[in-house]
Amino acid sequence: MLNCITKYYSEFWKDVWSDYYKMGTWSKQDKRLHSFSSLTENWTHDTPLSNYFERRQALVEIYTSLFSGRMRTIHGMMQKR
Questions:
Q1: Are the C-beta atoms of 53 and 33 separated by less than 8 Å?
Q2: Tens digits of per-residue pLDDT, 20-57?
Q3: What CA–CA distance (Å, rounded) separates 44 from 5?
């Protein structure tokens, strides 16, 4: 969703589409964060994260997920020593 900004990404969006995307949720509740349940395999103007708050929250959640995964890996490596 971060990259599908224009209609030229519609074919890519359709190729990678999964109904699983509709089950996504944000880690916090805020009226500025739109639900993923309305997503479809057809790209529309409403598909991308269209406001600053959604884009920022998406980056926070991506970084948090990556960091927590890395910390679990580091913790597991420390346990093996």
A1: yes
A2: 999 999 999 999 999 999 899 998 877 878 789 999 99
A3: 9
Residue 51 falls within a domain, yes or no? Answer: yes
Q: Could you tell me the CA-to-CA distances from 67 to 26, 34, 41 in Å, in that order?
A: 17, 25, 30
Around 66, how many Cα atoms within 13 Å sit in the side-chain half-sphere?
A: 6
Q: 67 is in which domain, residue-wise?
A: 7-80
Counted domains in the chain: 1
Q: What's residue 48's pLDDT? A: 79
Cβ-proximal residues to 25 (8 Å cutoff; 6+ apart), any chain? 36
pLDDT tier, 80 (very low <50, low <70, confident <90, very high otherwise): low
pLDDT at 73 over 80: no
Asked if residue 32 lies in contact with residue 51, where contact means CB atoms within 8 angstroms, the answer is yes
